Amino acid sequence: MAETEMSPVLQEPRQVVRKFQARPQHEGDGAVVRRSIGRFELKYFDPFLVLDEFSVAAPAGFPDHPHRGFETVTYMLEGAVTHEDFEGHKGTIKAGDLQWMTAGRGIVHSEMPAGQGTSKGLQLWVNLSSKNKMIEPRYQEIQSNDIASTAKNGVDVRVIAGESMGVQSPVYTRTPTMYLDFKLRQSAHLRQPIPPTWNSFVYVLEGEGVFCSERSAPVGPHHLLLLGQGDGLEVWNRSSKPLRFVLIGGEPLGEPVAQLGPFVMNTEEEIDRTIDDYQYFVNGFEKAKYWRSAGMVSP
Ligand code: FJE
Ligand code: FE
Known about the structure:
It is found in: Nucleus. Its cofactor is Fe cation. One of its GO terms (molecular function) is metal ion binding. Fe cation binds at residues 65, 67, 109, 111. The chain is mainly beta. The protein is built from one helix and 25 strands. The strands form six sheets. The chain has a seven-stranded antiparallel sheet with strand order 1-21-19-23-17-14-13, with no helix packed on it. It is globular. It binds ligand FJE and fe (iii) ion (FE). Residues 27-28, 33, 52, 54, 62, 65, 74, 81, 111, 123, 261-262 line the site of ligand FJE.
């Protein structure tokens, strides 16, 4: 295959098959999210359950809540979020930082804005295959300075997961996933390979980009573009401002999905068992019995 690191040749560039505008909605306790994946019109884009562009300022937030059966990936854009879980694991995710949390059999935690002002970021929910749903919870946390990145020919990339422009992320993805944060300066052009069997999408954060076809209309912030079949993405920035977007892809699991809010299993029976486990503090939820986050303890 004729290919250089900077401009890999694409045999079959992917096209945009659906476009969504993510409008603000209320979630958690007074928080606002622009949900693109996970809303009614796009319940699931295998293996992705939710993509939220969130915006939250104190006293709003996401107080104590459980997860089971998938991963939450929190990537901060502005401000910071403090998290705290029922095992005593806590920390602050700051602008540019990443938290890749594998909830597995169970996590109960809080996610609240830290400091003054509005905290913004992306939260992606990646489904786990049946064989991984009940694994031990695990965190992979990377601070902004340690996120793999490179820049060439007017294209900057931060590699959250997977590989781009010769740079690889250290994050281990149980469900094979790529997650790239691109910035294209004026007149920059990008070709990014994507494994042909994977589902993939673009979410625009800033500026305007021409995606997939040189003749298509430019797309601005808060838009989700679902990509069709092919071996990669082609993008042009023909505007005078920088274009920032994320490209996310994953290997579809091809399994049935049974979801009740923050519990995502394969069957309704497993969901019923999960409700029991959570209610009776068993099978991974033992520590939820006496735990409350600092914010939930009455003065
Ligand atoms: C959740 C409602 C929620 N998007 N983005 C129901 F809001 C949540 C939840 C979040 C969330 C948290 C952050 Cl930090 C960022 C988010 C939804 O916590 F889990 C359920 N079940
Ligand atoms: Fe959560």
